[in-house]
Amino acid sequence: MTILVTGGRGRIARAVVAGLTAAGLDPRVASRDTSAVPGSVPFDLTDPSTVSAALRDVTQVFLYAEPTTAAAFVEAADAAGVKKVVLLSSMSSYADNEDAAADPHAETERVIKTGAYAVTCLQPGAFMTNAIFWSYALRATGQIRLPYLDAEEAPIHEQDIADAAVQVLLAGPGSPHDGRAYPLSGPESMTRRRQIEQITEVTGVPIEAVDLAPAQAEEEMSRGMRNQAQFRSLMSYWASRVGLPHPIEPGVELLTAHPARSWQTWLRDHPEVFAE
Ligand SMILES: NC(=O)c1ccc[n+]([C@@H]2O[C@H](COP(=O)([O-])OP(=O)(O)OC[C@H]3O[C@@H](n4cnc5c(N)ncnc54)[C@H](OP(=O)(O)O)[C@@H]3O)[C@@H](O)[C@H]2O)c1
């Protein structure tokens, strides 16, 4: 049973590989940059020849979501006889707002599910690793600049997403996870303002939190998004969560049999992010 883990340089992919290896498996790791990932095979979703070669004799795939290449992936995976795909999707794939239909994860889920193999979608909400982007502005300005500071999120640790993926992959095709989608959240609903306060409490780094007006946020943030619809979808999502505690999803505990890791745990696991 060969498991292909795509996106080898990604934080979640690296944790998935470590988890599978710890379980005694020898996953095939794939990356666009094989020199950065020892032992990996070339894999670029925009280059179909690398996709077909990486999929040879593969039973299961851990896949990052990319709508523009999803149809080509389905064709290659069906040709290779893949039995199961575990797709790293997002909670935004089922967001209840007018831009959600254009969400790249929703579109990827729709296309990836057309293959002959079984699919399990992992649908995490906001990643705790987003704070790495906050830290860049903090280093430059002493500020963290975000819209909707009072929006509630339940951010999730990348290790919990990887642990969930590993359990689904270990269960393999034919398990009760086939055809299921698992929303995944962290253990606690917190405003972004509270997350920033806790960065200071845990690391001692002083931070000025700046609540960006929507127009200012568009100017500062939208360039980093995959498309404008995704940015608008995120903005309306955050607006809808002001004063509204975020649901705590049971997915991590259900799949991994351990509680989801807290924001304080993430800050202690990544002291380098906010170190002065
Ligand atoms: N940030 C959030 O709050 C959040 C919430 C929910 C869902 N998500 C989703 O989670 C995913 C990963 O997020 P992240 O920030 O953790 O990413 P990341 O660590 O930067 O990793 C992304 C990975 O995608 C792979 N990749 C990119 N383009 C590729 C291509 N053309 N062909 C093959 N692989 C490609 C890369 O692998 P190589 O470089 O090794 O090729 C890269 O390692 C994204 O789909 C994102 O939308 C994010």
UniProtKB/TrEMBL annotation:
Residues 7-169 form the NAD(P)-binding domain. SUPFAM superfamilies: NAD(P)-binding Rossmann-fold domains. Pfam families: NAD_binding_10. Coiled coil: none annotated. It comes from the Bacteria. InterPro entries: Ergot_Alk_Oxidoreductase (IPR051604), NAD(P)-bd_dom (IPR016040), NAD(P)-bd_dom_sf (IPR036291). This is Uncharacterized protein YbjT (DUF2867 family). It comes from Kribbella amoyensis.
